[in-house]
Specification:
The protein starts with 11 loop residues before the first helix and ends in a 14-residue tail after the last helix. Helix 1 (12-32) runs antiparallel to helix 7 (116-133) and helix 1 runs antiparallel to helix 10 (206-221). 67% of the residues lie in helices and 2% in strands. It is mainly alpha-helical. The chain has a two-stranded antiparallel sheet with strand order 1-2. The chain is globular, with a radius of gyration of 19 Å.
Length: 235
């Protein structure tokens, strides 16, 4: 039974809070930091291709910065868990959320008059690390930082429910619909406070992330102290 128990870092509620935070980050960077979404890189790759196709090599070269930051985030989040695990104190997932909290707190002090590229690259970096670290919510493959997959899975789940009367498919589709709602809610909340708090609106992220961090630290030091070497599903 112990082997089948999901770690706290795999709980659906934790993924929901991370998804709310990701929605907040996307709305924040779009509203206040240059009108871009930094949670994923599809747009940056397309924009780089378009710029180069139009002969704007300098403009196209700029997109290597956010793309490289995203690549670095994925690389480091794949390399660091093993050495961190040897410390035997906290899980890599916990250290990552703590790092996110610290970095987003510091971003709140960066004036809006500064070049937006700095904040965009930082958000690219942490979004990549979060995406690569939190992979499965209680055994269900999940992306916390963007919602394309959620939309697809809602459609798949509804199709299975209609064609095959598959209750499990319906429940899975509803789960992804809920995660989509979390992302949407994060975007709404972030947009609502951006006009009042400016650069410090990013601190709204500290609420869901703070809850996640508290849960992870508590689990690492108590209930899951003997499970620190166990890898989450999908790794």
């Amino acid at each position: 039974m112990e082997e089948k128990k999901y770690l706290v870092c795999e709980r659906k509620s934790v993924f929901a809070l991370l998804t709310v935070s990701a929605g907040m980050m996307g709305a924040y960077t779009f509203n206040l930091r240059g009108g871009v979404f930094c949670n994923a890189q599809t747009a940056n790759v397309v924009l780089m291709a378009m710029a180069i196709g139009q002969g704007n090599w300098l403009e196209g070269g700029y997109y290597l910065l956010p793309i490289s930051a995203y690549l670095a985030g994925a690389f480091l989040s794949e390399i660091l868990p093993s050495p961190v695990r040897r410390f035997g104190f906290l899980r890599w997932d916990t250290y990552l959320v703590a790092f996110e909290v610290l970095l987003l707190f510091l971003i709140g002090f960066i004036p809006l008059s500064w070049p937006h590229h700095l904040v965009q690259v930082l958000v690219n970096f942490i979004a990549s690390m979060q995406y690569n670290t939190f992979r499965q919510a209680e055994g269900i493959p999940m992306a916390t930082t963007f919602c394309t997959n959620q939309l697809r899975q809602v459609g798949v789940g509804l199709a299975k429910a209609v064609r095959k009367h598959d209750r499990e498919g319906l429940h899975r589709g509803l789960f992804f619909l809920g995660m989509l709602g979390c992302f949407f809610a994060g975007g709404v909340l972030s947009t609502a406070v951006c006009g009042f708090f400016g650069a410090k609106a990013i601190w709204l992220n500290l609420l869901p992330l703070g809850i996640v961090l508290a849960r992870l630290v508590h689990a690492d030091l108590t209930d899951e102290k003997e499970l620190l070497y166990r890898k989450p599903s999908g790794h």
